[in-house]
Write a structure and sequence with these properties.
Elements (H helix, E strand, L loop, with lengths): L7 E10 L19 E9 L4 E4 L5 H7 L2 E2 L3 H6 L10 E3 L5 H4 L9 E5 H7 L7 H4 L4 H12 L3 E4 L3 E4 L2 E5 L8 E7 L2 E7 L5 H5 L10 H14 L6 E3 L4 H5 L11 E3 L2
Parallel strand pairs: 3-5, 5-6, 6-7, 11-12
Antiparallel strand pairs: 1-2, 1-4, 1-13, 2-3, 8-9, 9-10, 10-11
């Protein structure tokens, strides 16, 4: 791949949670059955640049929150030849524990974050357990420290990150959730992160129950569809179907890495 604005894109699975469908839809699900959740970070790269999207959580957080931890996200990156210590750019879709928990594994990175997300994660709503439960205090404090070190770049809405990569403020799940649009050889993908945890949230119009603004979440689905070249170009944030639908880059990485481009 030689184009500066065209990328390879990978989903890297690092943990999962066995849970019921009723936990994944606002108001529950009348056909309640097992509907597990996978946890991913994403790698976007070409010959010109390497970008990691989100940093996951660590083994300690997994034990505390009763998630099954499979591998460090940094170990997942190693499988693709990427050393987290050398990564220079990390896009954080939002500051929930499962998206920012390993930021310290990226000592050279600049972190790219929406203004609204930092304001949300450090503001009045964090006194409300229903809104703060999905945040872990230490990574949020850690990110504030990175601000003082000059290692956080803030965005006030939609922005071009680099040729072929753009950031889009969606909100809904959190106040400052952003999605990432990436140009690939098969068209423009949208890494939706928690704008839609599962394909079903968006396709069936059923919001995920951890939500700051339901209206913004629903409007966000419309925006995500507009940004992607088709419904097949939208990648949800936690759906095990991602690993099933997309091929592994190598046979030995089956069940661990999916190549999305």
């Amino acid at each position: 791949m030689e184009n500066d604005d065209c990328y390879e894109v990978y989903a890297i699975r690092y943990a999962y949670h066995k849970r019921r469908a009723s936990e994944n839809f606002l108001g529950g699900d009348i056909h309640d059955d097992w509907m597990p959740m996978d946890y991913f970070i994403w790698l976007v790269r070409n010959h010109q640049r390497t970008v990691v999207i989100d940093t996951g959580f660590n083994a300690q957080a997994a034990r505390r929150r009763k998630r099954r931890f499979l591998r460090s996200p940094a170990a997942g990156l190693k499988l693709l030849g990427i050393d987290a210590k050398n990564v220079e750019h990390v896009i954080l879709t939002h500051l929930h524990y499962d998206h920012v928990g390993n930021f310290d594994l990226f000592p050279r990175a600049v972190f790219h974050l929406q203004d609204e997300e930092m304001a949300f994660a450090t503001g009045r709503h964090m006194a409300t357990p229903a809104l703060s439960a999905a945040f872990d205090l230490e990574p949020v404090l850690g990110m504030v420290r990175e601000v003082y070190k000059g290692r956080v770049m803030f965005y006030g809405g939609d922005a071009e990150f680099a040729p072929g990569i753009s950031l889009h403020l969606i909100g809904g799940h959190t106040r400052g959730l952003q999605v990432v649009r990436v140009k690939t050889r098969r068209g423009n993908l949208v890494l939706a992160s928690d704008a839609s945890h599962y394909y079903a949230n968006m396709q069936e119009g059923k919001p995920f129950p951890i939500v700051y603004d339901v209206g913004a979440m629903i409007n966000g689905w419309r925006r995500v569809r507009e940004l992607a070249d088709s419904a097949e170009h939208v990648i949800p944030g936690h759906d095990p179907a991602v690993i099933e639908r997309y091929p592994a880059p190598e046979k030995k990485l089956a069940g661990i890495v999916a190549r999305l481009d």
